[in-house]
Write a structure and sequence with these properties.
2 copies of one chain form a homodimer. Chain A contains 12 helices and 20 strands. With 409 residues, chain A is an alpha/beta fold. Chain A folds into 2 domains: 172 residues, Carbamate kinase (3-Layer(aba) Sandwich), CATH 3.40.1160; 164 residues, 2-Layer Sandwich (VC0802-like), CATH 3.30.2130. In chain A, the strands form 4 sheets. Chain A has an 8-stranded mixed β-sheet, with helices on both faces. In chain A, strands 5-4-7-8 form a 4-stranded mixed β-sheet. In chain A, strand 11 and strand 12 form a beta hairpin. At the A-B interface, helix 1, helix 2, helix 3 and strand 3 of A face helix 1, helix 2, helix 3 and strand 3 of B. Chains A, B: Keywords: Amino-acid biosynthesis, ATP-binding, Diaminopimelate biosynthesis, Kinase, Lysine biosynthesis, Nucleotide-binding, Repeat, Transferase. Chains A, B: InterPro entries: AceGlu_kinase-like_sf, ACT-like_dom_sf, ACT_Aspartokinase, ACT_dom, AKii-LysC-BS, Asp/Glu/Uridylate_kinase, Asp_kin_monofn, Asp_kinase.
């Protein structure tokens, strides 16, 4: 399928200094000069967002969410305005738009808003006028409260995919890695770049630690049929296409991913009656925490339950759990910060039940102990000691022969 | 006159770091706790705006005005959001608004927009709800282009006065000086803080170098009858009230001001025919340059003309002059960067013609040579060598006995 419009997304490291800003401008101009209608969406420069968060915490221990969004949304505006200036100097017209000017309407959940709708009239008009349009990533606007919102982690990727869906455009996501690999090349030097991967596999990879694309952007892309081209800011080589899977040619296992960002909560002494788990996870979800693996066990009529959450959600999780004590009575909470997760991803494993056994055997042969296991039709994840992650990734990459090109079975 | 609403303006040095942000929050909360409806308007933290301008120039030699406004408007938003966070921690409710959210409508002249109208519904609603409202200074919104604009130098003072006019509020302008003085206390240690000064005198003082209040804010205040209280961020002492003058009690001379920021252009060889001066100053005004003193002379049928402009307007002035050459033929342009201006201000001098003579005599007795003179009914300015400014200010402060409280004549 050919597109006449492209949305090109550049992350914070791609615009970290004035020289890089000019480089991004050149890439956008080159696409425009190939005859495309071009939308650029850009994250805040380098560590700007972290700097603003630090500043907020120096002023207030628990910054108000609405005000935090007002603060954080400035980072992307700065980056977009600078890219637009640099484009002018290259002889093309450009205009930068805030999230609200670009019609990115969200709900009103500050710091983690979800995109509801894109009213892209102003973007379209500017494209019709031959301009390159820069849209500030990571932010939107709530019509209920008339306030600026931010989209949380992965927000700029979500902005790019949602804009591509609204404009019927291709979506190119640029970063400092040249695509999606069979494993992290820093751990497995022989890891191979995948030419294409299905939405489903990419979802599992993003959920289990691959950083190249954010989960919510892949979800959005799948739901709206947007093809994503994940590629390098610094070269013209083809990256990885994320698209509808072609079941006939699916390899059994596509990639090994890992994550060192999980904290495992274990609750003991909670009553074993119906509805307790539902209640706990309702409260945790209401705190906007993304729970990953959950396992439950009943010991002497009391339930024991473990689940993992991203490290940054630990304070929210603690608060949510405390709020259930009135109803659930005394229970103990333990946190384990020393675990990591290694996962095998592959749409082909759906029809190959032996994959899990082979994974567990490989880990056992390398002396690696399993703490928790969770599976989906196309993924198997194991929580293991964090220090053993590199060895586990290398062993699995070898065992499933990911270094050589895949053979469909 | 008593007000139930107050607009409190804090400059960039008053919010330069997190501790100062918290201090500003305390001042706003204290006013709220005295029962007032409180609007705060805040400049960008410390040198933020200069940093953003530097960044723009690293990316582009001549940054696009629209994009520069998108960039620069972020500084005040950051400061306002931080102050709002700090107010929450002090137990009051607060909400920060961008210029466009606060209804500050401007023309479309980027980087130097003028306020046209304030639609303060959202500010009023928030005040009605008991909230302290922070309004990002220095910025507005053009309805024609739907773009963010910035107000240029003195923009945040203008925001404060315009809001006070729209809300029928008092206007307090806080800075690191405790009010308006008879001369710069760094040059004249015995300079005296004025308890009150008329709009007219303050206009002349701001125009001739006093930095405590910006010219446009004083103009706005006079046009809308807003009383300004210029006072210190760091103490509760009374500052200086800028208000309608009471002619009966006017001292002859109120203050000596000076400026080291002027560059004098001298044009020689321009044709001496009607309309030439009008043409030159039309073109210069179209470049948004604020011309101060102008003098003209005819020598051998050619006009010689000199005028002074603020140093930052020199490039725009040069460009404007070049553009008249096609019509005016060859003329020579000289620039003098070594001059400064010393001025006497006083509504009382209107009826005392001897003031100018006494000023010139005082300067002559101190061996100071006059390069250009300009006068208004309440001001006399002399351009002199920049190095002689401190001596001139001290001599005039002495000669007009400004150290002692004024006696009306």
């Amino acid at each position: 399928m050919d597109f006449d419009t492209v949305v090109m997304k550049f992350g914070g490291s791609s615009v970290a200094d004035p020289e890089k800003v000019k480089h991004v401008a050149q890439r956008l101009v080159a696409a425009r000069e190939r005859g495309l209608r071009v939308v650029g969406t850009v994250s805040a420069m380098g560590r700007t967002t972290d700097g603003l968060i630090d500043l907020a915490h120096q002023v207030s221990p628990h910054p108000d969410g609405r005000e935090l969004d007002m603060l954080l949304s400035t980072g992307e505006r700065i980056a977009c305005a600078l890219v637009a200036m640099a484009i002018h100097d290259l002889g093309q017209e450009a205009v930068s738009l805030t999230g609200s000017q670009a019609g990115i309407l969200t709900d009103s959940v500050h710091t983690k808003a979800k995109i509801r709708e894109i009213r892209a009239e102003r973007v379209r008009e500017a494209l019709d006028g031959g301009k390159i349009v820069l849209v500030a990533g990571f932010q939107g606007f709530s019509r209920e409260t008339m306030d600026v919102t931010t989209l949380g982690r992965g927000g700029t990727d979500a902005t790019a995919v949602a804009l591509a869906a609204a404009l019927g455009a291709a979506c190119e996501i640029y970063s400092d890695v040249p695509g999606v690999f069979t494993a992290d090349p820093r751990i497995v030097p022989g890891a191979r770049k995948l030419p294409a991967i299905s939405y489903e596999e990419m979802l599992e990879m993003s959920a289990s630690g691959a950083k190249v694309l954010m989960l919510r952007a892949v979800e959005l892309a799948r739901n709206h049929g947007v093809r994503i081209h994940a590629r390098s800011t610094f070269s013209d080589e083809e990256g990885t296409w994320v698209q509808e899977g072609d079941e006939m040619e699916q390899p059994i296992v596509s990639a090994v991913t890992h994550s060192e960002n999980d904290v495992v909560f274990t609750l003991t002494g909670i009553p074993d009656r119906p509805g307790v788990a539902a209640m706990i996870f309702d409260v945790v979800a209401a705190a906007q925490v993304n729970v990953d693996t959950i396992i439950q066990n009943v010991v002497h009529g009391n339930a024991e339950m473990s689940f993992s959450v991203p490290a940054e959600d630990v304070p929210a999780t603690r608060g949510a759990l405390e709020s259930t004590r009135a109803e659930l009575g005394p229970f103990a909470v333990e946190e384990n910060h020393d675990l990591g997760k290694v996962s095998l991803i592959g749409a082909g494993m759906r029809s190959h039940p032996g994959v899990a056994a082979r994974m567990f055997r490989t880990l056992a042969e390398n002396g690696i102990n399993l703490q928790m296991i969770s599976t989906s039709p196309i993924k198997i994840s194991c929580m293991i000691a964090r220090g053993e992650i590199p060895a586990a990734v290398r062993a699995l990459h070898d065992a499933f022969e990911l270094e050589s090109a895949p053979v469909a079975e």
